[in-house]
Specification:
The complex is a heterodimer. By secondary structure, chain A is mainly α. Chain A is built from three helices and three strands, in the order H-H-E-H-E-E. In chain A, strand 2 and strand 3 form a beta hairpin. In chain B, a hairpin with a 4-residue loop joins strand 13 and strand 14. The chains are: A mainly alpha, B alpha+beta.
């Protein structure tokens, strides 16, 4: 059986929040850390039932190799594509200044 | 993200004498499929902004991606051509980040289950074979293109906001990653360049990509670290991103060797970070520092089911691979009857496939080699580009040679025709007409010019009459001068002999 999951610490939650760009107060960190620990523990309970011969599953459907042919289909018009954009300029999506760099 | 002052650079040769460089190369290849990786939008370069998007590649709610079968085929063929194992089962993963070049807030990629892994390829470095181990080749999608507004140079720094075009978002991309490349020593910059050049030829031969570095369909990230000696543990590496020419790959490696050696000499540490290459100044500057903040929280993509390439399918794709480059090299040398030295020059110039295509278009191997290795090599060198990057095709080079073979132009005029083709003036025949480059072989015009040459050079004419045939050269030169190099020299000689012989 796999080891029981390590406890979720307050620092773990702060790190996750930063990765997800969620601002949390000190009180929220204190509140969430034990809650998340309970959730992880509950999910880990699955390991108690699933034997080692049961592969971890990531998909609900028993399917593989679902492909489409390489055929071009009509795209949206630029007007349609930009319809949901908070702002647009020069037929492009206008976004706030990017800090950091291009991925 | 401020650039810190660096110690002065160490000269490359000095740095290499004291440090052992280790390279790692990541090459991104855009596939040339008709449609995108997960949707039916066209995957064409250069369309008007945001004309090739749909709910799937814009990440609109409820849209579901479906994998492009041709892209998977291309990925497997690339893996096989790099002598990789092909996964029997693999999945896509979400790479989560907050940069707006992907409207979904994640990039669909592969994480710990690449479709191809554990391969190698043999490249030619100055005529010697150098083996590069391949870690993996995985499938992913390209990102959108950002335009930074308000900054001085279109770069991020100083920009007030950015504009994004998602036409490129979702175009199939294969990322080919090498294992650490050791033992290159002072050849490290050349090895890096030769590897990318080799991949470009290999991918072009597979027909899976346009491999246009200038258009971004082939881009290279260079990881480089230095260590005290070949048996020391690896040093800290930097990752120079998005190099878009062979020349910048080579220059960036040289620069990073010099920069890192200077840091190590002065007792400073090399920071593990991405770096930007500046083509104009030939330096790299600090980008984003790699830290635990860079955690992409990969997880299996729930919207795409696993891919389990059937072994029969893989075998079938294996059978479609072109002849391996090493075998092709041996075969072509035999067919072309080139000496080892000649072949080495051809390989050194990266001209083998260009010559092959020029020969296929009708030129003799010797003529094809002559144009690519002399006139065109000189022009590529002047322009700081590679032969492939010149705006002339092998068929056009063969066309120029055909004009020479049929006597319509001589060698001197042919060089002008090449110049015209390179300048975008059209096909060789168009350039000849537009620039009036045709050789004058009309007897009327030539006879008149020969008569004038004889009249103006009576002492030369006398020598020829006395049997000194070699003196005819002076008269041919006079005729050529009058007709601005466009006379048919052989016919002029005949006319002189007829008149004075």
């Amino acid at each position: 059986m796999p080891d029981p999951r390590p406890a979720i610490t307050r620092d773990d939650v702060a790190h996750l929040a930063q990765l997800a760009r969620i601002e949390l107060t000190a009180a929220e960190l204190d509140h969430l850390a034990p809650q998340l620990a309970v959730i992880v523990e509950s999910v880990a309970a699955v390991s108690a039932v699933a034997a080692q011969d049961v592969p971890p599953s990531s998909h609900a459907l028993p399917l593989q190799n679902v492909f489409r042919r390489d055929e071009v289909r009509p795209s949206l018009s630029p007007q349609e594509a930009l319809a949901g954009a908070p702002e647009s300029e020069q037929q492009r999506f206008a976004v706030p200044r990017i800090l950091g760099e291009e991925a | 993200m401020t650039a810190t002052a660096s110690p002065a650079l160490v000269a490359f040769d000095d740095a290499i004498a004291r440090f052992d460089p280790v390279l790692g190369l990541e090459v991104h290849v855009e596939l040339n499929t008709a449609s995108k990786m997960f949707c039916g939008c066209a995957a064409v370069f250069g369309a008007e902004p945001n004309t090739q998007t749909c709910p799937v590649c814009l990440g609109l709610p409820g849209a579901l991606p479906v994998v492009n079968e041709t892209a998977v085929e291309s990925a497997i063929r690339i893996g096989l051509a790099l002598n990789c194992e092909i996964a029997t089962w693999c999945r896509f993963a979400r790479k989560n980040y907050f940069y707006p070049d992907m409207p979904k807030n994640f990039q669909t990629s592969q994480y710990d289950e690449p479709i191809a892994f554990n391969g190698y390829t043999e490249i030619d470095v100055d005529g010697e074979v150098f083996r590069v181990e391949i870690e993996r080749a995985h499938m992913e999608e390209d990102t959108g293109k950002s335009l930074h507004v308000g900054g001085a140079t279109g770069r991020i720094h100083g920009a007030s906001h950015s504009l994004v075009d998602y036409n490129r978002a979702g175009i199939p991309l294969i990322e080919v990653v090498t294992k650490p490349i050791e033992g290159a020593g002072k050849l490290a910059p050349v090895v890096a360049r030769a590897y990318v050049a080799h991949l470009r030829v290999l991918l072009s031969g597979l027909g899976v990509s346009d491999v246009r570095m200038d258009q971004g369909s082939l881009r290279c990230d260079v990881n480089l670290s230095l260590r005290a000696s070949a048996d020391a543990p690896y040093g800290t590496r930097s990752e120079t991103k998005n190099l878009n020419s062979l020349r910048s790959v080579e220059r960036a490696v040289r620069y990073e060797v010099s920069r890192q050696a200077a840091l190590l000499d002065s007792g400073e540490r090399v920071v593990q970070e991405t770096r930007h290459w500046h083509e104009d100044t030939g330096i790299t500057t600090a980008g984003r520092e790699k830290s635990d903040a860079e955690d992409y929280r990969y997880f299996p993509e729930p919207d795409l089911v696993p891919i389990a390439p059937d072994r029969a399918w893989v075998a079938q794709l294996q059978a479609t691979l072109p002849e391996p480059l090493a075998e092709r090299r041996t075969r072509l040398q035999t067919v072309w009857e080139f000496s080892d030295l000649e072949m080495r020059d051809v390989l050194g110039a990266g001209a083998m496939l260009l010559i092959e295509q020029t020969v296929a278009a009708g030129a003799s191997p010797t003529a094809a080699k002559k144009w690519w290795l002399s006139e065109l090599a000189r022009r590529a060198n002047d322009a700081g580009t590679t032969l492939e990057e010149l705006s002339i095709t092998p068929a056009q080079v063969a066309g120029v040679q055909a004009l020479v073979d049929t006597g319509r132009v001589n060698d001197k005029l042919a060089r002008e025709v090449l110049e015209g083709v390179l300048a975008g003036e059209g096909e060789p025949a168009d350039v000849v007409s537009a620039r009036g480059l045709e050789v004058v072989s009309d007897d009327g015009a030539l006879t008149a010019a020969v008569d004038r040459a004889i009249a103006h050079n009576p002492e030369v004419a006398a020598k020829i009459r006395d049997g000194k045939a070699a003196a005819a050269g002076a008269l041919i030169g006079a005729v050529m001068k009058e007709l601005r190099g466009q006379a048919d020299a052989a016919r002029v000689r005949e006319l002189i002999v007829e008149k004075l012989g």
